[in-house]
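User:
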Amino acid sequence: MGTTDISILAIESSCDETSASIIVNGKVLNNIVATQSVHEKYGGVVPELASRAHQENLIPVVQEALSSAGISKKQLSAIAVTRGPGLMGSLLVGVSFAKAFAKTLNLPLIEVNHMQAHVLAHFIEEPRPSFPFICLTVSGGHTQLVWVRDHLDMEVIGETQDDAVGEAFDKTAKLLGLPYPGGPLLDRYAKEGNPKAFSFPITRMPGLNYSFSGIKTAVLYFLRDRLEENPSFITENLADLCASIQYTLVEMLLIKLKEAMKQVGAKEVAIAGGVSANSGLRSTLAGLAERKGWKLYAPEFQYCTDNAGMIAMAAHYKYLRKEFVGDDLVPLAKLKL
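Assistant: Predicted structure:
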């Protein structure tokens, strides 16, 4: 490694994934992730348990990132960390460690917005989108339509007004009796079902905004009524129920995406976030892009979920612009893009 190389250690701890990554001259060398399984029996992420697990996992994860990249602490140019949005306790662990590490090594500190990093995950590997483009960012905590003009110039033009689509997937899956996290299981069963078997209402919000709270209520009452008639209704119709729910959620996402693409005149579209791994969304969007003549981009799966690789990519562009912060940095649970 040369003396002019830009080598950054990035840390991600916004929810229940402890992750570290090394990026050198804009190339992500690794993406080390420690997943927390402690939340499964509770049916969702428990913030206190998440922050404790981060404390246990962070040092081993950072050591593995440095070791597997063949980078020593003395070769680092900066330390980057997720500032928010996310769980406050989880963010505190990552931010506190990054501040102390940067101070000890006398290195500049870079703060990264988690949602901006999801968009920039598209620049880790080829093919990379061209500016400007629309990014549909979909996860357990967020649903956003982002107009991306440059690496660090983004505008949210539409977002959910209540629940995120990932939460809708997980909570409807829970109503069907599927274990947490239910979204991926719902996707798996949906492949075997008929998406038109059952009809659920599509909530329409003004402009480019979303609302996903209504479908959860609709599914709840639908199942209540059917189970009164037939206690085995879910078991007998699980695949069709999953396919119908998934079809409705994907339709809700794509209705607004089509409006956004037309409104700004975009020809390139990207998807990011954990829900972008959903096969129903990917295949339906791929078909739509082909019909519309859009170029479609989706990151490799490891860069869709919460990971430090995307934090590292964002940090690289911020380093080039010398966007550093002081050791008075504090995490923000509701940090806006």
